[in-house]
Design a protein that fits this description.
With 216 residues, this protein is α/β, with parallel strands linked by helices. It contains nine helices and six strands. A hairpin with a 4-residue loop joins strand 5 (126-138) and strand 6 (143-153).
Length: 216
């Protein structure tokens, strides 16, 4: 009898824990802003790779446009901002969203911070990591959506048909190749797809997505 009571209590605790950890996103600010067009500004780069911002910003428009929003061409945005004297992502992110939005006539501004973009060599493998913060702010300066995404990849060095020594040598070679020329783009595209399209906090369907009403 005591064991049954303990089991029932444990089950109730687990269910209560599950209930309290589930968080529903509040979409009221997003609905109030009702963005149709999104301005993607140059990123803040906290990694050591100076080329990371160019790769990251190039991968952002497609998944956003696929959700049904108009995205201003990122190269044009970069050029216009440079003509206004804004070259660095850090300084651009410090500008009032209303000023940036007015410059292009956008409904919202997307800010992305690159927290990590590196490849760590571990002799037998190389772990490639990307880590991003995303923030969408309305033209009125209200944050209407935010998300973070961290993803990792390491090459599969398993080779069951090879001898242990050959498999070890293959692993070392693969790790060295990945370290010398890490491919960040597949991870970056996956991160964007999960954040904007498939994740629990994915953007609601935009007005230009045919036959797809906005998320309630």
């Amino acid at each position: 009898m005591i064991q049954r009571l303990l089991l029932a209590g444990l089950l109730a605790s687990l269910l209560a824990g599950c209930a309290t950890t589930r968080v529903e996103r509040d979409w009221s600010a997003f609905k109030a802003a009702a963005p149709r067009s999104i301005l993607v500004v140059p990123t803040i780069n906290k990694s050591l790779d100076v080329d990371a911002p160019n790769y990251v910003i190039a991968a952002l428009p497609v998944p956003i446009a696929e959700r049904g929003y108009y995205v201003f061409p990122v190269n044009t945005v970069k050029y216009v901002l440079e003509q206004e004297g804004f070259y660095e992502g850090d300084r651009i992110h410090q500008q009032p969203p209303a000023a940036l939005a007015k410059l292009f006539g956008s409904d919202a501004v997307l800010y992305v911070t690159i927290k990590q973009w590196d490849a760590k060599y571990m002799v037998f493998t190389t772990v490639v990591t990307v880590d991003f913060d995303y923030r969408l702010v309305s033209k009125d300066g209200v944050q209407i959506w935010a998300e973070s995404k961290r993803m990792q990849y390491q090459p599969d060095n398993q080779n069951n048909s090879a001898s242990p020594m050959a498999a070890l040598l293959t692993a070392v070679i693969n790790a060295a190749i990945t370290r010398a020329a890490p491919n960040y783009m597949p991870l970056t595209r996956q991160a964007n797809q999960q954040v904007f399209t498939f994740g629990p906090s994915a953007l609601p369907n935009g007005p230009y997505l045919v036959d797809s009403p906005r998320k309630n």
